[in-house]
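Board notes (copied after class):
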Amino acid sequence: MIAIEGDLSIKNISKKVRFELTHFHCRFMPLYFKTACGANGFAKILRSDFEMGRYVPFVSDEVTLRFAIEAIRE
C-alpha cells in the first residue's frame, strides 16, 4: 500500500497525517482529450487532536476519513 504524509488543518489546527492510498489509476479521458488520474484512500485521526474530543469516551475519538479524488493536468 502507498502512503503520503502531509499536514491536515481543521479548526486552525494543523497536524501531520498519513494518508493511505488504496487505489490509484491513470487513463485517457476522451471527453477532455487528456489523461486523468484518480485515487481512493483513507486517513485515521483523533478528534481530540483537533479540539473536537467532546463526549469521549461515549463517542469514538478515532475517526476514519475516506476520500476519492480525480485530477487532470492543465
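Comment from the instructor: Residues 17 and 36 are 25 Å apart (CA to CA). The domain at 2-72 is CATH 2.40.128.110 (Lipocalin).
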